[in-house]
Amino acid sequence: MNFIQAILMGIVQGLSEFLPISSSAHLVFTSNFYKVFKGLEIVQHSNEEVFFDIMLHLGTLIAVLIFFRKDILKILQAMWNAHKTKDWSNSDAKIGIYILLGTIITILVALPINEVAERLVYSPAIVGILLFFTGFVLLYCENKSKKQLEITHEAKPISLKSSLMIGLAQGLAALPGFSRSGWTIATGLFFGLDRVTAARYSFLLSIPIILGASMVYPIVKIDLHEAIQYNWEAIISGTIVSGITGYLCIKYFMKFISKFSLAIFGYYCIIAGIATAIFFSCC
């Protein structure tokens, strides 16, 4: 891990975490492209790389917390009031419960496939295939959403059913190539949510799981003696860059989807998935 690689991956993480194009896939591609051009083995294992990936996600988590700070405070306040009054009819209080339940579903789905997900980091060609599938899901759900709106002329609110299914989608997105934001937003569209509501809920839903992973992974898997040898200047710099890039990405992405469809991201995932699968298959 060097400084230039860290900055590059910080930018990639900040952009791809919130765009529905799979940040994990793009980190895999960026890291392995770098190794290919440096003449290194793709199968080379590094705990520092895995830890750095967690730190990059922490950077984008901070971006979410800052951007949605007012929404988060409203939800927490509503949940506290609902707890005191025993009245959970408030929409913000319901969102808080949905996020908790969705997070539980995410954990139940993600834990069994975690080892597979970690191994796929060293199989970029397979990750490319999964990214291709993400593109197909985005296009399908965007098209289905348009047809639903043509019939009903209005979007549906988040429900218990849709929140659980979005949580399931987030769990499946533990596999690199399955975009977390892409699958959760697409699932929201499938169940009748508008793009802005689906994206907002997707980003809020990411908070508990990323926060948990950022705390649990270092405690469980990081050897402190080994960690001292990490390039902390590069790690911290990459984390800061991912946070700044992520904040700007959220800001402009929310404006974009309020006016335009997700189709462009679907086509991008299909093209990028095919190209990377072919490239790494030939390496």
H/I helix tally = 13
In total, the number of domains comes to 1
* Helical fraction: over 70%
Indicate the radius of gyration in whole angstroms. 19 Å
Class computed from helices, strands and strand pairing: mainly alpha
Shape descriptor reads globular
Helix/strand order? HHHHHHHHHHHHH
Sum this structure up briefly.
The chain has 283 residues and is an all-alpha fold. The chain is built from 13 helices and no strands.
List keywords for this structure.
283 residues, 0% strand, 13 helices, 79% helix, mainly alpha
Question: How would you explain this protein's 3D organization?
Answer:
This protein has 283 residues and is an all-alpha fold. It has one domain. It is built from 13 helices and no strands. It is globular and about 60 Å long. It starts with a helix and ends with a helix. The model has no long low-confidence stretch (mean pLDDT 90).
